[in-house]
Amino acid sequence: MLREALRYLLRHKITVFLTSLGIAVSISCILSVRFLSASVQTALEEKLDEFGMKTVTVDLFRKDGLPASFEEDLVRKGIVTMISSRTVKVSQIDGEMTAVYYAEPSFFDLTSLSLARGRFFTGADLDRKVCVIGSGIAENKKNVIRLGEEIRIENTAYEVIGILAEDSYDLNGVYDEAVIVPFEGRYPEGYVLMLSKEETEKSLADALGEYLDEKEFAIHTNADFQSSMRTVTDLVAGVLEWIARISLFVSAFGLMSVVYITGAARKKEWGIRKSAGAGKRDILVQLLMESGMIAAAGFLEGTILSYGWITVLSSLLGLPLFADWKELWEIGGMTVFFGILAGIVPAWRAANATVAECLEA
């Protein structure tokens, strides 16, 4: 029966190719969604690992903030190894509203930001009006800002001593359109800090609890950000994959139609075989095999297609090529199952036709 099924499919290569093409497109969509989602997630986690699992941010929701001794207490108690005050305001810069980060010099070490030109400010610059700007601010539509030039933040002139590299970001956001200046003021609106150990997050919460109510602060960790991003990517990938699964189901109906039409055209063949002693089971199994093999061919075509263009896309976008062979076997099995399922009705009709009905066709 297997030999007969292969012989028929090899005699009708064009029919098999065109029938399996719809399945191949659906499989390519499913695999592409899964592979790209996993690749994006892997790339994101690799990037976030640069910030370290011990780096956290604290947002304060009380205007009078915390006393300056609080930072010293955290270091003295061994809860953190590095800390930087951070206040973010939306201010007018040369006529446009932009995010301004007021931070201490250690902010740059904690956020792993990189420079395209110039330098970061240091402790010696805290009494000066200097700033580090994002690449989007440096190369805006109006004019190009160079090192040593001044920008005006709320009518105060700041000298540009550093320009960040493009696509600079951390757990707080993207800095392409941001300006960073030395911390000004008594009470920061938050902190960026590095815990001495990952498990000291609870100690940090306890230390904050000595000064603030639990509703007056929030701690954000790398793990929280990773979890949020994974939820978003999984949701988008899940929706797209279900759309692709529906298209696979529709392709199975197309396969059913083809098997039904070719089965009707082969009635004389069935009649001759039944006259020669072939039973219902032989006809049924052969048609189901043919249906399953067409689906398997579609899966193979879809896999090759998806791997080809995903490899090219990953190379262009700089994403790691990620493949889960367990998922590949799962999708392959699902495809063959749909193929066999699609062939049940036409195979059953062909197997139960009488010799007289077949020969009269």
List keywords for this structure.
361 residues; alpha+beta; 2 domains; 10-stranded mixed sheet; 11 helices; elongated
Please describe what this structure looks like.
By secondary structure, the protein is α+β, with helices and mostly antiparallel strands. It has two domains: 180 residues, no CATH class; 149 residues, no CATH class. 55% of the residues lie in helices and 19% in strands. The protein contains eleven helices and twelve strands. The strands form two sheets. Strands 1, 2, 3, 4, 5, 6, 7, 10, 11 and 12 form a ten-stranded mixed sheet that branches. A two-stranded antiparallel ribbon has the order 8-9. Helix 1 crosses helix 9 and helix 9 runs antiparallel to helix 10. The chain is elongated and about 100 Å long.
Low-confidence stretches: none
Output mean pLDDT: 75
**What is the SS-derived class?**
alpha+beta
Biggest sheet statistics: 10 strands, mixed
Given the structure, what is the number of helices?
11
CA(first)-CA(last) distance: 23 Å
**Mass-distribution shape:** elongated
Beta-strand level of the residues, as a percent range? 15-25%
Give a nutshell description of this structure.
The chain is α+β, with helices and mostly antiparallel strands.
